[in-house]
């Protein structure tokens, strides 16, 4: 696998939701993405399915996937950090893109990008040569009601030719956008309803990919134009009602859930692998699974991602360590998000594993714990944590739980060690935290903690371990904490 390079994100947000587009509408903040096929012996995709009975599901090492991916578009790309979410999914799936880069300008059309002569402008970036170039048009241009749809197709063809000239093996992907929420002021009037808007977007994106670019391209080489049916996937979810809410508060741009679904569709389109089992990012696990299954239904991908298809084992006697909270520490996987993930993890012994750690349901983060401890932990591990609870008191806190999930575990027996520390006793309320795995629960007083741990000595796992974190049912604690977790495989 190629050596992982840092992700380079180029974002120019010239206004965002309030920018006027050239046609007088509200601006989309833009960005686009692209990449080459993974080059594996079996490319996956709709026809790949699972491995045949008796056949090694990993006959050869998986290719690294496209190394360089460029997004060209607007806020429908960069809102809620969608390219970063996409890259996190790629890494968790077993791929290692060297670059995931976007050129993003609020309210920009492809026509506007085309006229950008800056050194960092979209034409100059496309000319660098990329494995994947993803083109996302302003949200009302590929329609009959606003348009002009013909202009979208002309400009998409121009960028296609530019990308192919720079790299004849490029994959150009059109990112089909989504209709605005049902109560947006654009309905009724400009469009009858979201179904009308999405139908127009669907028609013109498909026509551009299947007919217009193949007919009008001047490129000497003509790789097929691909379509990422993001808008169609959105429509499928929205037809079932909310939650999850895919739009943000403006009923226009994506929420975290919307950006996650967009990234899933792009993952499935680019890598031709199922998204089921990838980390939940910005959403809870139930929502993540719903959106993963939706994405797969539109990409047709069924074969698991490499990191999930061929999961390396955690050796007996080895362990993985996760640090929760905003401060990172060497040798520990850093998971600082109240709803996020990290992994696949590398063990303390240096073994690659398929283990992914996820958090959901936590309330916040804190750095008010003790940096000194008797456990040999780095100060960055013991001083910070995630917390769950309520300032409204013990009764309100009892109704809340955070969840930590480890997936991709090797089947076996584990010792799970949990630590947390928080200065002070919260005005006499205490900070007794309750951890539960299955039917077993352990309580830990984390006040000024420098040495106490909660240890689950015999935890059997067939692949997934789920721990809940909350306040003790006794006493008056308002907040529960988790600062670190060690999973040690004993057999």
What does this molecule look like?
It is a single chain. By secondary structure, the chain is of the alpha/beta class. It has 2 domains: 10-307, SGNH hydrolase (Rossmann fold); 319-489, Jelly Rolls, CATH 2.60.120. The chain is built from 12 helices and 21 strands. Strands 1, 2, 3, 4, 5, 6 and 7 form a 7-stranded mixed β-sheet that branches. It has a 6-stranded antiparallel β-sheet with strand order 10-11-14-19-16-17. A 5-stranded mixed β-sheet has the order 9-8-21-15-18. Helix 5 crosses helix 6 (194-216), helix 7 crosses helix 8 (256-271) and helix 7 (230-238) packs across helix 9. It is elongated and about 70 Å long. Residues 1-56 have low confidence and may be disordered.
Short structural description:
It contains twelve helices and 21 strands.
């Amino acid at each position: 696998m190629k050596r992982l390079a840092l992700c380079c994100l180029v974002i120019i947000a010239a206004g965002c939701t309030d920018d006027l587009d050239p046609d007088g509408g509200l601006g989309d903040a833009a960005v686009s993405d692209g990449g080459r096929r993974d080059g594996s012996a079996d490319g996956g995709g709709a026809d790949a399915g699972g491995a045949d009975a008796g056949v090694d599901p990993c006959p050869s090492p998986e290719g690294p996937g496209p190394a360089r991916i460029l997004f060209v578009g607007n806020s429908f790309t960069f809102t809620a950090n969608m390219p970063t979410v996409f890259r996190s999914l790629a890494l968790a799936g077993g791929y290692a893109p060297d670059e995931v880069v976007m050129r993003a300008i609020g309210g920009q059309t492809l026509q506007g990008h085309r006229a950008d002569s800056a050194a960092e402008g979209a034409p100059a970036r496309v000319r660098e040569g990329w494995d994947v170039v993803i083109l996302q048009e302003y949200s009302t241009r590929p329609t009959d009601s606003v348009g002009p749809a013909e202009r979208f197709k002309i400009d998409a063809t121009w960028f296609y030719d530019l990308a192919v000239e720079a790299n004849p093996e490029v994959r150009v992907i059109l990112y089909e956008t989504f209709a605005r929420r049902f109560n947006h002021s654009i309905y009724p009037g400009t469009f009858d309803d979201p179904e009308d808007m999405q139908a127009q977007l669907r028609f013109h994106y498909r026509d551009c990919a299947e007919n217009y670019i193949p007919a009008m391209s001047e490129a000497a080489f003509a790789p097929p134009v691909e379509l990422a049916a993001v808008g169609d996937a959105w429509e499928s979810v929205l037809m079932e009602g909310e939650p999850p809410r895919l739009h943000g508060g403006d009923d226009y741009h994506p929420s975290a859930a919307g950006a996650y679904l967009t990234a899933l569709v792009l993952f499935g389109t680019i890598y031709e692998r199922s998204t089921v089992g990838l980390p939940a990012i910005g959403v809870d696990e139930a929502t993540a699974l719903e959106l993963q299954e939706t994405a797969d239904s539109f990409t047709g991908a069924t074969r698991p991602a490499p990191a999930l298809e061929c999961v390396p084992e955690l050796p007996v006697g080895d362990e993985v360590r996760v640090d929760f909270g905003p401060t990172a520490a060497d040798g520990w996987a850093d998971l600082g998000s109240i709803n996020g993930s990290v992994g696949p993890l590398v063990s303390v012994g240096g073994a690659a594993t398929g283990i992914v750690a996820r958090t959901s349901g936590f309330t916040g983060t804190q750095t008010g714990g003790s940096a000194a401890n008797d456990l040999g932990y780095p100060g960055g591990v013991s001083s910070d944590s995630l917390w769950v609870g309520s300032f409204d008191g013990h009764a309100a806190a009892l109704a809340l739980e955070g969840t930590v999930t480890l997936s991709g575990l090797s089947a076996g027996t584990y010792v799970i060690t949990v630590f947390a520390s928080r200065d002070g006793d919260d005005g006499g309320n205490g900070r007794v935290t309750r951890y539960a795995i299955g039917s077993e629960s352990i309580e830990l007083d984390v006040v000024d903690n420098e040495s106490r741990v909660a240890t689950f000595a015999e935890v059997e796992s067939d692949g997934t371990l789920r721990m809940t974190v909350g306040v003790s049912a006794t006493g008056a604690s308002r907040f529960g904490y988790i600062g670190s977790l060690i999973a040690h495989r004993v057999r």
